[in-house]
Amino acid sequence: MATVSQIEIKDLAFAIEGKEILHGLTLSLAERRVGIVGRNGSGKSTFARVVSGLVAPTSGSVTVNGHDLAKDRRAAIREVGILFQNPEHQIIFPTVGEEIAFGLEQQGLSKADAAQETQAVLDQFGLSHWKEAHIATLSQGQKHLVCLMAISAMKPKLLVLDEPFAGLDIPTKAQMNRYLSLYEGSLLHITHDPADLEGYDHVVWIDQGTLRQAGSRPEVMNAYLAAMHSLGEDDDIAYLSR
Ligand SMILES: Nc1ncnc2c1ncn2[C@@H]1O[C@H](COP(=O)(O)OP(=O)(O)O)[C@@H](O)[C@H]1O
Ligand SMILES: [Mg+2]
């Protein structure tokens, strides 16, 4: 049965070394497919890390399905999985099979059960021949796919995707999209490509660390794309030398 995660964010601020990266963010999300858009440096990746409980807010609160994930790491492992922008930040083990099995063992599965689940997820992706493959020998796109398999094997209720398709070739991207469209849990998907959000219920636009707009996909995407195109047409690049 499909489950929908509830994300409650109240007056969230997040600062590093005195620099405020996110501020004044209040947002309630209860849609199964949520897209996040925004310019480079607007705070999307930081937002993904805060929602996943990898870092605690400086002030305000974030809960997923009622849990404060930064404080409750056991709940975090069950509730949320995050696919980082850079697979190198995610991968720990030398082989594909070990990488997938690790997350499952973290969730408390025995070695035997973890091995069985690892096989199941490899079969589901049609990649059982990858089990013994050394991750270091894979391409960037293939590494992304390994991370997706490892995270989805853990079946988190909410899957946070931080530009998961960056650098993927067309067939790999299509394969990942197909898989994600079948994912039973909720998706929070950061992307620059409007095509990735086909069929999404809701879009959140983050701008300079704060919430610019949240609402239905057509409404927010139209406003966002109009703003981005007008910025693109502006030939003043003086800000680059600031
Ligand atoms: N660990 C960090 N230390 C200092 N500044 C950071 C750190 N992480 C992110 N930032 C800054 O916060 C801003 C938002 O970054 P990020 O969340 O990666 O944005 P996005 O994913 O939208 O491109 C950027 O200006 C970035 O330089
Ligand atoms: Mg980012």
UniProtKB/TrEMBL annotation:
GO terms for molecular function: ATP binding; ATP hydrolysis activity; ATPase-coupled transmembrane transporter activity. Residues 7-233 form the ABC transporter domain. The gene is bioM. This is Biotin transport ATP-binding protein BioM. It is a peripheral membrane protein. SUPFAM superfamilies: P-loop containing nucleoside triphosphate hydrolases. Its EC number is 3.6.3.-. It comes from the Bacteria. It holds the Pfam family ABC_tran. GO terms for cellular component: ATP-binding cassette (ABC) transporter complex. Keywords: ATP-binding, Cell membrane, Hydrolase, Membrane, Nucleotide-binding, Translocase, Transport. It is found in: Cell membrane.
